[in-house]
Structures are given as C-alpha cells and as structure tokens.
Amino acid sequence: MGSDALSPLERLRRRRHERWLEALQQQLAETLAEVPCRVWLFGSRARGDWDGYSDTDLLVEAESAELAERAADQLRSALVGDDVLALDRCRWQAMAASPSPHWRAVQAQARCVHPRP
Predict the structure, then answer these.
(1) Which of 57, 48, 59, 117 has its CA nearest to residue 91?
(2) pLDDT tens digit at each of 117 positions of the chain
(3) 111-115 and 37-42 as β-strands: parallel, antiparallel, unpaired?
(4) Does domain 3-115 have CATH number 3.30.450.40?
(5) How far apart are the two ends of the chain, measured CA to CA in Å?
(6) What count of Cα atoms within 13 Å lies in the side-chain half-sphere of residue 26?
C-alpha cells in the first residue's frame, strides 16, 4: 500500500513509530558502542501492530553467548528495552529451523535495529 493510500491517522502513526525507532537506535548505539553485536527488534513493534500497551522486545546476537549476555545486561542496566534476550550467533541462526513455532516466528519477524557485525 502506497503512502498516498494511507489515512492521515495511519501516516501519523507511522511517523511516530519512525521517530521512536530512531530514538531506540540512538540509545542502542550509545549503550553498545564498544560491544560487537547485533540487536533485533521483535514482537508487535517489529510487526507494526503495536499499541500504547506494547513493550519493546529485543534480542542481542553476538559471536558468543557470554558476549551476548554482557550486551543484554548493558541494555537492561540502561533501561533500553523491556524484554532483552541474548543468544550466540549460531543459536540465533538455528531459530529459523526451530521446532517451536514461537521461535520460528520471532526469527522470521525480527528486524535488525543495531547492525554491528
């Protein structure tokens, strides 16, 4: 659907989400400046069906589980994100073939918001 076909309310909602996303990415960049990791947004904020009660679900992916957990702890301490999970890169990539429909959906819908390799 092109932006011309959107209602004024939907255009406003999308602009608000874009501003929220920019602020989140700035917080991630500041908080994780020294940590080589990726951060994925998942849940309603990533899908676009968020509302005023939605939380911020983040998943930290790093080369090792220890590094991912360290980055997740930094985000939690800085109050960036409401639910912050940590996974090593191999485990994150394996989620696409997980027997759990929940984890397959998380992997399929996630949006990279901090792309540090």
Answers:
(1) 59
(2) 555 688 988 888 889 899 999 999 999 999 999 999 999 999 999 988 888 888 999 999 999 999 999 999 999 999 999 999 999 999 999 988 999 999 999 999 999 999 976
(3) antiparallel
(4) no
(5) 32
(6) 6
H or E element at residue 13: helix 8-31
Q: Which residues of 43-95 form beta strands (DSSP E)?
A: 57-62, 83-88
Token pair for 48: 């676009």
DSSP 6: S
Residue 86 CB coordination number (10 Å): 23
Considering the entire predicted model, what is its pTM? 0.88
CA-CA distance, 104 to 63, in Å (whole number)? 20
**What does the alpha-carbon distance between residue 61 and residue 68 come to, in Å, rounded to a whole number?**
6
The answer to whether the beta carbons of residues 13 and 19 sit under 8 Å apart is no
Q: How far apart are CA 20 and CA 22, in angstroms?
A: 6
